[in-house]
Amino acid sequence: MPYQWKDNTDGAQELRLWAHNSLPPRGAMGVVLALFVFGLIPLFAVLGSVLLWGLLPFMLVTVLGLWLAFEMNYKSRDVTEILTLSDTQAHLVHHSPRKGDLEWSCNRYWTRPEMHAHGGPVPNYITLTGEGRQVEIGSFLSEEERVALYEDLVQKLRAPAA
Question: What is the CATH topology of the domain spanning 3-20+81-158?
Answer without folding.
Answer: PH-domain like (2.30.29)
